[in-house]
Amino acid sequence: MITQYNISHIYRSNSASEYKRKIWDTLSKRYSMIQFNQIDTHTLFDKSQLPFTLDKLPDSFSKFRRMVSDISIRAPLGKPPQLPNSCLTSKQNWQAVWNAQSLHSQLGEGQLFKGGSRAGKQHLRSYFQTKNASTYKETRNGLDGMDYSTKFSPWLSNGSISARQIIDDLHQYESKIESNESTYWIYFELLWREYFQWYAQSYRGKLFKFNGIKNTNPTTSFYPERFQKWCQGNTPYPIVNACMKQLNATGYMSNRGRQLVASCFVHELNLDWRYGAAYMEQQLIDYDVASNWGNWQYLAGVGADPRGHRRFDLEKQTQIYDPDRLFIKRWGGDQHLEQLDSRDTVDWPI
């Protein structure tokens, strides 16, 4: 393509993915005659706006939030007046490579989201046409349904909508409808996402290491049988089972659910956290490399959590967030409960 079309410039959205960075670096070295450009479109801030260099990234979210709280977020760009006349390939060729109808049929009845920028922007508009933003902080820990949280993440993760677009619509809502603690909390959650984006770019390959960014290894290992039971939703913990079965059926899980299944994985099942993160990477329709692996490190006690190994009481969490066990019943979380077997084979991680 470079030869055929006489390419002189290549652009990309700056990515937190270490693998994509390696490919980018390889290409830029191989084709030194081409100008390679990265633009920070996946984050709220440009790297140049940050009051620190990436090697000086604050070691906790709280410190990060205080340091960036006064940075203005640039408004999203409007639609371009026109597109170039020439295209590298025809629409028919793209359809041959990527058949959207075939993908749709594979998702089946469990599909919760429709992909693409148009659908993402429609969801963004629809969300702020309701009053859900005004109660977000109270409802955000829900486990099931479409209204307890914003559900922006599937489109946000692949760039169909941007964090800046969400902030722009949020500010319009706050100026026209209501500004309260819940609307602030949407911004707060986007700041958490923002922290993990720069965290991944700062620590790069350490995002996938067993000891994370710490100097000591976790006291966990890998039990194949336990791992399979967790993946299938067949553990001694009904709330975890329900969450995992929901994930396997829909490709989505609530934020509260993700914390519970990760805590169970590390603490109750004593499993190597990297396998849990990898399974989520495989299953989640809103997978984001920085948010996924950063959050797993956080829960495993090898990341940015200043409090260390964070553990959830699963029975207490069930009483708080599913007191009538409706979520557990809907997803069959209490069916075929398996007890842990101390004789499970153990494979020590490298």
Could you give a quick summary of the protein structure above?
The chain has 350 residues and is an all-alpha fold. 49% of the residues lie in helices and 3% in strands. The protein has helices spanning 2-5, 18-30, 61-68, 91-97, 100-107, 117-129, 136-139, 153-158, 163-176, 181-203, 224-232, 238-250, 255-268, 273-283, 289-300, 314-321, 326-330; strands at residues 9-13, 35-39.
Give an overview of the whole structure.
Strands 1-2 form a two-stranded parallel sheet. The protein is mainly α and 350 residues long. The protein is built from 17 helices and 2 strands. It has 3 domains: 2-39, no CATH class; 49-66 and 114-203, Serine Threonine Protein Phosphatase 5, Tetratricopeptide repeat (Alpha Horseshoe), CATH 1.25.40.80; 224-330, DNA Cyclobutane Dipyrimidine Photolyase, subunit A, domain 3 (Orthogonal Bundle). Helix 13 (255-268) packs across helix 15. The protein is 49% helix and 3% strand.
Strand order of the largest sheet: 1-2
Can you count the beta strands? Answer: 2
Q: Could you say which overall geometry the principal axes of the C-alpha atoms support? A: globular
Largest sheet: 2 strands, parallel
CATH class categorisation of the largest domain: Mainly Alpha
Percentage beta strand? under 5%
In CATH, the topology of the largest domain is named Serine Threonine Protein Phosphatase 5, Tetratricopeptide repeat
Order of helices and strands: HEHEHHHHHHHHHHHHHHH
Number of domains: 3
Q: Please give the share of residues in helix.
A: 40-55%
Low-confidence stretches: 100-108
The rounded Rg comes to: 22 Å
Helix segment tally: 17
For the termini, the CA-CA separation is 41 Å
The quaternary state of the protein chains shown equals single chain
The average pLDDT is 89
- Name the structural class: mainly alpha
CATH architecture of the largest domain: Alpha Horseshoe
